[in-house]
Predict the structure.
Amino acid sequence: MNLRRRILTIAAWTIPGSFAAVFTFAGATWQTPWRTILMVTCVNMAFSGTCVALCTFGLPWLVPRARRHLVFPLNWLAVLLVLVMFGVAGSVVGSVISVLTGVVSWSPAFADWYLGSLKLSVFFTVIFGLSGAALEEARARLVRTTLALQKTQLDGADARRLAAEAQLASLEARVDPHFLFNTLNSIAALVRDDPKAAERVIEQLAVLLRSSLDRRTSLVPLNEELRLVENYLDIERLRFGDRLRFSIDAEPGVAQAVVPRLALQTLAENSVKYAVSATRAGVTIRLSAATRGERLHIAVEDDGPGFDASSVPDGHGLQLLKDRLAMTFGGDAACVIHSRAGSTRVALDVPFLTTAEAPRSVERMLNEQSEDIPCL
């Protein structure tokens, strides 16, 4: 990324965010004098601008080196520690500018004000820094896979298999941004009004981020996915209150079956978007998992207003999930959508594979489908 683009990125994050923070965290309203709003916005820009600049210039240098020299999760722990230092630096610069401009004066209350500013600086630097680093890492992973295809002299079968894996990596990378930023939006409203709830949500987000950052396998045990979905829906329930109700019913014996990473979260997110967000009335989301012979059947249902299931666009989360199922299981998996007013049901039907069986089965499927993928 060249210097001009980085500067534009810093401005794009800092200016709107600093202005919005005046109303979200400083308690300003549209009746507040514009001179005050402008002054507080400038102080916020000093805080956030320093943090964003440090992340924009520091993370592209730090993340590749952490990945190269440290193993997971130590590499991400190193990134986390550096982000905390970036947040502290941003709070120091912002505080100095606040004092010099007269917005804040030295007084007994200054220490409390600074501690609050420090917490917010570190919190948002860590959350958005980790999110940005995760997205860049996903893109870098795709680039590395593509370069490996172009530069490594492999026989035709290996090259086709690697092409299939590269396409799967691309689909997974496209899922993660949607998931991360949707979850972050749920936290923003809690930081000021309910700090304890915000702390609990941060812990739940840490679990979700850990799953998103761990790319060692595309298939994970169903019980892990169920915990992630419960964390996600708990976060959204804090955001929507009584408008969101949910239940999870997993048949005994399905816990160790494997499913595509974040597949269930995609289904739950679809219900939140098209049912809970679309109506002021309460909505119930029901998730069930059961076996049918040698098949695993998962369904997410809601009683919301429904959506047009016949015209799901290419970038839609459900379409991406269908693509991931096709890349992972070939024609041996299905995602069926039924939606009408008052009832929406999205069902997954995949082979029942355990963590021990999955690697061999998926490798065989990738090899079979890669015969139709041309070498790059």
Notes: The chain has two domains: 3-151, 196-372. The CA atoms of residues 35 and 242 lie 39 Å apart.
